[in-house]
Amino acid sequence: MANIPVVPRCSSSPVKECLATVGIATGHVVEYEAPGGGLDYAGSVVDRASRLCDAGAPQAIWVDSATVVSANMLKVSSQMGLASGHGPSDYLTETEETVQLKGFPELVKYREVIWRQGPVGARNGMLTEATENQADSRNSGTQPATLTPKPWAHHPAVSTMEGVVRHWNTTRGQGFITTDAEGGDHYVDRRYIVGEGDLTVGRSARFVPLPPLQEGKNPLAGCTVQEGNRVQGQFQRVFPGPDKEYAFVDVVDARGNRQALFVHLGPEAGTRRPGEPVTVEVCRNNRGIAAQLITDTNGDLARETRGAMTGLGQDGTLDGTPA
């Protein structure tokens, strides 16, 4: 019998800011009655699920190889996936990866469940590597080879927040972004701005929330993008087809923090490939922070307003309508 322990973890923020991480492992577990009453579970499978949970970034769902083999992907879905037209094969990362987990001498194989626009990836400081499919290795009689990591697949966007630039010191290259969430303003400097440019007070910005640089200081805004700024990135995932025609562009700051911008491409989606460099302009529409593709037409820089907010609408579906 297969038991699948799930170990969620949330931040201390209010429920609306809850950033859970899920680790799932499949195998035999030991069930016992806890001293305080109720049932509890123990064993290496429980430990593996817990360690996978510790390794994943906020909002990540990591499953071990036994779970992938056992799962019925026809029963896996999410509101965002349904809105995006995902099929059963779209809910798992394409490549199996390995991660070194505390308490496990061997690398643990896992894949990530893509419940939103793209994989979330590992918690900062956690290294993973892709491995070839084991069946291919057995058929060829060779040892499994390590794949070259794809930057757009292994450093995907994590959870983001939106706010307004409250203060910016051009001389020092630092300032603060205020949000509606508890915890005060977020500190930002040029190292944590995509393109290392300046911010404009009063404009909207989106960023990856990070812990403060020093205890007692303001939390940090990493990989910050601001409306009106043009940034360079790479296509992370491209969804061609008449019912999709959008992509996610991976952008990164000087410190390696990343986020993904949702861009509606139209028929051009069929010509774009993951890893291809691209320039986009950050904008804002009635849905929030948006991105639009920059194209060069007859020597003039023309903007194609094809942006949409990255995230869930009030009805829980993907906000993918053109700006």
Automatic annotation (TrEMBL):
Annotated region described as Disordered, given as residue ranges: 132-154
Biased composition (Polar residues): 132-146
SUPFAM superfamilies: Nucleic acid-binding proteins, Nucleotide cyclase
Highest taxon of the lineage: Bacteria
Protein name as it appears in the record: Adenylate/guanylate cyclase domain-containing protein
Originating species: Streptomyces gibsoniae
